Amino acid sequence: MPLSTAVVPQLDAPTRAEVHSLADAIEARDGEPPLSDQALTQLGTPDVVHVLARNGDQLVGYAQLDGTSLELAGDAAAVVSLLDAVEARSGADLRVWSHGRSSPVGAVLDSRGYGQVRVLHQLRRHLGGSLPEIAVADGVTIRSFVPGRDEQAWLAVNAAAFASHAEQGRWTLANLAAREAESWFDAAGFFLAERDGRMLGFHWTKIHSDGTGEVYVLGIDPSAQGLKLGPALLVRGLTYLAGRGCDEALLYVDDDNAAAMNLYERLGFHNHDADSQWQRNEP
Predict the structure, then answer these.
(1) Looking at the structure, do residues 107 and 27 belong to the same domain, yes or no?
(2) Do the beta carbons of residue 70 and residue 97 sit within 8 Å?
(3) Model confidence over 51-86: pLDDT tens digits?
(4) How many structural domains is the chain composed of?
(5) What is the pTM of this model?
(6) Which of 17, 154, 203, 278 has the fewest other C-beta atoms within 10 Å?
């Protein structure tokens, strides 16, 4: 039976549950989630384009188009059907994510004339053993995030730290509030570096349902570069994750971010997997 696809303006609760179940099954198969946190938090919004692929009544594929950025979940046949539907309404600037090297999305994109334009490495390290002690600069203190008080200051530092980052740098209060509403959100593991009451950097940690810790976001205000806040905040967060019982930590870093890659490798992280963003090659 051929797959049917449908563009829907918004997903109702039962359909969102179907998408979550599909994503969980794909993660169990491929070893990596097919959809990013950003895509998952947008399942209920009408501000993105939702495309469903079904085999009869069974949901076998899902696509989310946010501007020109597309994420896909499904097997190869579902990915082909979803791409057909999305390409019919998109321009040449469409960019598509494949999450993890085992994802079928990359092979489908390659066969359709897409090329990789960005690589996001997933690094990991075990948290057994001791972590180095890294002192903070004079006058700098590190504390945990306080919901309802620190949002605007954090958004300003995040925007400055990731001014050239296509996704992270454009976070809004709504994006932050959506993460704070997630079951995994833990303000105690969201560390802020300050001096004289001014936020200079942060390390936001996350603990996955399987117990793996994550360096969710690590950012330093450009005005504070040179204070070595990155290593200090990184170690503070890793120490927290280890204390919460995490045996391993993961993080994502862009292929072209040599400074961050060097920092992570010095602190024991190694390459584990990679996400790729693809764009159709010019004919």
Answers:
(1) yes
(2) yes
(3) 999 999 999 999 999 999 999 999 999 999 999 999
(4) 2
(5) 0.89
(6) 17
